[in-house]
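thread from #wetlab-drylab

HS: before we spend reagent money on co-crystallization trials with fructose -6-phosphate, can we at least see a predicted complex? here's what I'd submit
DV: go for it
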Amino acid sequence: MCGIVGYVGEQSALDVVISGLRRLEYRGYDSAGVALVTADGLATDKRAGKLINLEESLDRTPLPAATTGMGHTRWATHGGPTDRNAHPHVDCTGKLAVIHNGIIENFSKLRLGLETNGHDFSSETDTESVAHLLEDAYAAAGGNLAQAMRDVCKQLVGAFTLVAVHSDSPECVVGARRNSPLVVGRGVGENFLASDVSAFISFTRNAVELGQDQVVEITRDGISVTTFDGAPAETNEYEVTWDAAAAEKGGFEHFMLKEIAEQPKAVADTLLGRVGVDGKLTLDEMRLSDEELREVDKIIVIACGTAYNAGMIAKYAIEHWTRIPVEVELASEFRYRDPIVDPQTLVIAISQSGETMDTLMALRHAREQRARVLAICNTNGSTIPRESDAVLYTHAGPEIAVASTKAFLTQIVAAYLVGLYLAQVRGNKYGDEIAAILTDLRDMPEKIERVLETMEPVRKLASTLKDKTSVLFLGRHVGFPVALEGALKLKELAYMHAEGFAAGELKHGPIALVEAGTPVFVTIPSPRGRSVVHDKVVSNVEEVRARGAYTILIAEEGDESINSAADFIIRIPACPTLMQPLLATVPLQVFACEMATVKGFDVDQPRNLAKSVTVE
Ligand code: F6R
């Protein structure tokens, strides 16, 4: 949603903060700002637009040197993306500044009270109320910024990460979190606060996880964490397993291209170490007992966006392997429909960031109903796995591009592992059957690599189709969620009208959208598997072709039966039906990325979006 960095140390705080903001810009990019505690007091600058606008402003009018500071990159919620609404927000004394990620739900009431007491506001944001509350609390706490933060947090309703500095407390930065991420980086003679570790990974790999409702104070040599009530809090310190290079483009033009290319490795890493010496699947982080898993009589997958599409694919596999009914639900809808959930329900929450508020709220609702919750997540120590009963981490490495790619493939793999594990524990499948599926999974990185090697014609296709106004995506069985994902990628990156449909459903209405030249992507199931599905999809292709569609078929190598129905063929290696999404999605990612490039759009930071959506 928004990116936050705080720093105290010996280096130039501005340099550290700006380098952190560059890494966090994927979280929000409609304005950015910094506050430094200098020898002459507080110095700030903030600008609407991307970080580069702020950097240019700082070049034109440099701020005085400082070794304590903080910065923010914003995805607007309250108040449009203007210079005034950009963070930091400063109190009436001009000595205190605050930055914020999240939403303060009771801000209008707070603002009214503060204005009545004589505070002047200069923005339309919810955050500015916090600056003025901190101003009063700082005075009441005798100049203790951490105490002021604790006092203020208790008055706030909503989700927030807050970081504040005060020019009368020049050697410290104070942060707080509730339902929104904040992690501490422990350095030597310097310490960091950030929305995620990528902001400080070039300086330190030692991170300290903060819990819910905690306040942290960092100085050059110390990190002190308390609850909102001031009691010392336990923290979990860990070493980040990836390095700065993983959070950089590494020669690729865009992060998205890099992340697409990393998919073979991401899938291989997610499979690594999952089989024990006895040949059985072992999921280390699975904190649910075999007995608990045997009791499960229903699975509900909750997720948003791309993660939801991964859940839709997982449903086919998990039901097939375990015979447990699986529902897949948009997290934002889940708790508002009074879902039927009980202690025998296993809720699987899928989230790349582990911070998506809709998913977090849905999982809390599930836990209140005493369901067991298993998280599939890519971000170590984030809120969703921390609040779940069990977790299976995807090992995709940092995903920086806003459009999710490698996380999607690894979410499918992780959900498949959960399905196989359930089948193993419950005896739905023999060991050799599970081993055979694991072998199929282990073959996928090499096959994804082969798909990636043949993407040039797909790139050219994007140029050919750049003036089309609408693109359709079709598939059946696991090909249906692939179609949804293909359409989502094209919408978010190329701002084109794109829809994914179940191929058989088209004739019940959406086929009216097809006109002469409408591009229609279709994933063709393997003719070797349940060939009846293959033949039905080919019939659906003929139906759209008869109405003038330009058909682009993603089909298995050697399936020549589709040639006459295709205007354009994308070949993928043969694989079992359930593995096909891991291959068929890749050309759709490449197509969307290329289409955005051809149209001159920002591939890594599409308009109106942010990487992790920490508001409901
Ligand atoms: C699309 C995309 C989003 C996310 C969704 C959930 O490319 O990235 O649809 O998949 O916002 O995010 P996480 O997985 O972080 O919960």
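DV: The mean pLDDT is 94.
HS: ok that's useful, forwarding to the group
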